[in-house]
């Protein structure tokens, strides 16, 4: 539920960002005010013109001078308008870009738990549409609202000065306009918030459909997806219509009432002129001024709408910016000069932030030690918490109880930068970025120079058996990821594995990174991985017996706990649940007794 703030509270949050451009904004405001004053000055020339030059027998020179003055005032008005644009547009765009950059940086910093809760479309619409609305308000809405207010005040004062009875009649229209304006503010703010949220939800739907287009097509669900999209689009359309109706009603009131007042003051004005209480020139100037004021009053509707929309945009922007990053650097970080890579889990508990209260912890007291350079396979039935445990090591999620240490140092005592230089990850669902193969692989690497980078790249691609990249159109410089060449699941996994290896971490965390490879390629990768894993401590989630075979020891997980640790042979011999899990990893029936006999025989031979 968004927190309720007043219009002023919301708008004033922009002040720190406006501070650097405040001078230009103020100058822009003066330029806009200058344009308005020119517009208000023109009727006064009309007054002189009508009163002094229109009488029979007057010299025509007054007409020429007055026309020249009107022309000059017109040119000045246009110049002031152009000056306002020049002063304000560029700096407002700079503020928009700065806000967008800090928004993006904040999104990058926020914990994964935050991203689990927010639809991508909502974040996208905040990063693009809302910031755009805020810029338009800064560059135009805010200035014009102030200038319109001042113009109306000055215009009405001039009208009072020229004829107070006529001005009073005109002003009578302001009372209902203000009452209606109050109602308009409440309704429009509510609908505007609804429409911006719905637009964000719609963007999320588009993003998900594009992402999942293969699944939609494969299951023949395109029709349903379209129907659901149509429903959402229709809801947004209804809200937009409601918004437009609300603005149209307000605009009708602010247009009609001043016009009616103008009509009433026209009749009264003519009567006053007939009685000689006001000059003809004064009457002309009064109505020309009233024309300028009326136009400004009519413009108040769209300006207020723009302001309330900007308030909503600001509120939505700060809902994200105010979200605190829960995974941060410590005040006094510790460093490991020469990490060995001993990883210990001490009574680790974890619960997802969005989990219902009575639910048990996903990880419920994990105790496990990985010796330096050891490869430990993590095995367990689906949903027992393997991936969750892995995510805690690079602090993608934070433990909710207990501690994880590398060489005795709590992960939370490292800066995130240092931690992620010690720990590298590869997941089953590989994410590659719209970048070249080279940039994707070297993402976590810190090569000293170009030659070093090339060597690291070559070695990592070689270990991950990703030689196919050399046959891509531009080799390692080929653009891959969303905007580039599509790779197969197995190819993507190999590039992601190369990325994890290229970082040369002390601790490697692999979540079933070979699942999409064919058996032969998997064998080759494993052969090379064994070399790398010798001095890297590795925790690897295994969904295939061949991955288990990579490991020095296996940790068996059940219901968020480590229930047994030992070699594959030891666990096969003593743990029936382990046998059950291993048997369920393969589709074909396996004879585990024979496998155990063979393994024990191999072990005896090795010892002899
Ligand atoms: N982001 C999340 N928010 C809330 N609950 C989650 C989240 N991710 C996973 N869970 C829940 O946590 C539990 C453990 O999930 P996890 O992915 O760690 O299991 P796993 O053992 O790796 O499963 P698998 O072998 O199928 O990959 C599951 O019950 C899952 O529903």
From TrEMBL:
One Pfam family from the UniProt entry?
ABC_tran
Q: Which InterPro entries match?
A: AAA+_ATPase (IPR003593), ABC1_TM_dom (IPR011527), ABC1_TM_sf (IPR036640), ABC_transporter-like_ATP-bd (IPR003439), ABC_transporter-like_CS (IPR017871), P-loop_NTPase (IPR027417), Type_1_exporter (IPR039421)
> What's its membrane topology?
Multi-pass membrane protein
GO MF: ABC-type oligopeptide transporter activity; ATP binding; ATP hydrolysis activity
> What coarse category fits the chief subcellular location reported for this protein?
membrane
Q: Where is the ABC transmembrane type-1 domain positioned along the sequence?
A: 26-306
**SMART domains to which the protein is assigned, alphabetical:** AAA (SM00382)
In terms of SUPFAM superfamilies, this protein maps to:
ABC transporter transmembrane region, P-loop containing nucleoside triphosphate hydrolases
Q: Where in the cell is it found?
A: Cell membrane
Cellular component per GO? plasma membrane
Transmembrane stretches, by residue range?
21-42, 62-83, 137-160, 166-184, 247-272, 278-297
Could you list this entry's UniProt keywords, alphabetically sorted.
Answer: ATP-binding, Cell membrane, Membrane, Nucleotide-binding, Transmembrane, Transmembrane helix, Transport
| Segments forming domain ABC transporter | 343-584
Q: What is this protein called?
A: ATP-binding cassette subfamily B protein
């Amino acid at each position: 539920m968004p927190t309720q703030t007043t219009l002023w509270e919301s708008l004033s949050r922009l002040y720190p960002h406006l501070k650097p451009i405040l001078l230009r904004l103020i100058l822009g405001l003066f330029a806009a005010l200058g344009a308005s004053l020119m517009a208000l000055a023109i009727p006064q020339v009309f007054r002189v013109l009508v009163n002094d030059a229109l009488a029979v027998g007057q010299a025509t020179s007054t007409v020429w001078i007055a026309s020249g003055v009107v022309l000059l005032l017109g040119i000045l008005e246009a110049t002031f308008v152009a000056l306002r644009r020049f002063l304000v547009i560029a700096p407002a765009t700079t503020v928009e870009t700065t806000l967008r950059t800090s928004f993006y940086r904040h999104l990058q910093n926020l914990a994964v738990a935050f991203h689990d809760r927010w639809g991508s479309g909502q974040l996208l619409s905040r990063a693009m549409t809302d910031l755009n609305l805020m810029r338009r308000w800064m560059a135009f809405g805010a200035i014009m609202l102030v200038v319109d207010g001042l113009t109306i005040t000055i215009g009405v004062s001039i009208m009072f000065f020229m004829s107070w009875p006529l001005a009073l009649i005109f002003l009578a229209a302001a009372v209902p306009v203000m009452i209606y304006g109050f109602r308009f503010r409440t309704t429009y703010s509510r609908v505007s918030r609804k429409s911006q949220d719905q637009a964000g939800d719609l963007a999320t739907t588009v993003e998900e459909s594009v992402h999942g287009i293969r699944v939609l097509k494969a299951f023949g669900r395109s029709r349903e997806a379209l129907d659901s999209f149509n429903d959402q689009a229709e809801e947004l359309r209804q809200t937009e219509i409601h918004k437009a109706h609300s603005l149209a009603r307000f605009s009708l009131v602010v247009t009609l009432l001043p016009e009616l007042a103008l009509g009433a003051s026209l009749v009264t004005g003519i009567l006053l002129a007939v009685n000689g209480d006001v000059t003809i020139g004064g009457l002309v100037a009064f109505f020309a001024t009233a024309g300028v004021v009326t136009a400004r009053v009519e413009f108040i509707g769209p300006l207020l709408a723009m302001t309330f929309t900007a308030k909503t945009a600001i509120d939505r922007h700060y809902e994200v910016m105010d979200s605190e990053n829960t995974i941060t650097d410590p005040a006094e970080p510790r460093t490991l000069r020469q990490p060995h890579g001993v990883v210990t889990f001490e009574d680790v508990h974890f619960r997802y932030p969005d989990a219902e209260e009575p639910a048990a912890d996903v990880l419920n007291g994990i105790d496990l030690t990985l010796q330096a350079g050891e490869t430990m396979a993590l095995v367990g039935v689906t949903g027992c918490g393997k991936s969750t445990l892995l995510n805690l090591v690079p602090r993608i999620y934070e433990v909710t109880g207990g501690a994880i240490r590398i060489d005795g140092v709590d992960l939370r005592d490292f800066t995130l930068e240092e931690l992620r230089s010690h720990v590298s990850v590869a997941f089953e669902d590989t994410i590659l970025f719209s970048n070249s193969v080279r940039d994707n692989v070297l993402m976590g690497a810190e090569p000293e120079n170009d030659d070093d980078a090339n060597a690291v790249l070559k070695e990592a691609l070689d270990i991950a058996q990703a030689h196919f990249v050399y046959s891509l159109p531009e080799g390692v410089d080929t653009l891959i990821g969303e905007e580039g060449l599509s790779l197969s699941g197995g190819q993507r996994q190999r590039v992601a594995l190369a990325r994890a290896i290229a970082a040369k971490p002390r601790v490697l965390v692999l979540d079933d990174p070979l699942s999409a490879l064919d058996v032969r390629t998997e064998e080759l990768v494993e052969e090379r991985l064994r070399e790398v894993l010798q001095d890297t401590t590795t925790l690897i989630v295994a969904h295939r017996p061949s991955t288990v075979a990579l490991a020095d020891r296996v940790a068996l997980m059940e219901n968020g706990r480590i229930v047994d640790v030992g070699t594959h042979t030891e666990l096969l011999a003593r743990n029936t649940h382990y046998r059950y899990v291993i048997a369920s990893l393969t589709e074909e029936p396996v004879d585990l007794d024979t496998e155990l006999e063979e393994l024990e025989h191999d072990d005896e031979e090795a010892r002899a």
